[in-house]
Amino acid sequence: TGVQTCALPIFTVNGKKVVSAISIDPEIVDVDDVEMLEDLLMAALNNAYAEADEMHDEKMGAFGGAGGMF
Question: For residues 41 and 70, which has the higher predicted lDDT (pLDDT)?
């Protein structure tokens, strides 16, 4: 899950980078500033993807040196 300390949207992403949930704090939504919301969504999704990659690497790291056998 991509979680920041500021009020960014939260995306739940699995290891295959499939988004299964989105949570948006109504406090961050400003109908007069859609561009800011778009930026927040992009930052949160990129963070969720980075965390999914990190989890994948941690779990699959032992298999990374298999020499392409699989």
Answer: 41
